[in-house]
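hey so i finally got around to running the thing on that chain from the lab meeting. sorry it took forever, my laptop kept dying and i had to restart like 3 times. anyway pasting the input first so we r on the same page abt which one it is
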Amino acid sequence: MIIKGKEYYYLMDGAEFHCAMDVTMRFIGGKWKTVVLWYLKNKTYRFGELKKQIPDITEKMLSIQLKSLEKDGLVKRESFAEVPLRVEYSLTDFGMTLIPVLNAIAKWGRSLAETKGTLIETTHQQSFR
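ok and heres what got predicted. didnt touch it at all, straight out
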């Protein structure tokens, strides 16, 4: 990025970022991260419950995304010593700082969809793609 004629970049966790948007997208970029974060913003979910909320994501991809979000400190994974094992996912305090960003992204998407698209009722058996 250029600030007052001088070139700068952010160095964070050993990686170079050329602007603030680059930093943000490092954490929430990709097809599924924002969707997972969206559902976790108001509720703690078990893996299977979260998978039901996002029918088009595969179990493998959901697992990958949750591990990545946990590694980044946005999602907390809590295991309970029960039979069968119970694992719950929720946003961390750091993850909660993204709620205004997620709300803004959703508001923009909703406005665009209402302007250019049509809201159609679907059943759980139907695909969203």
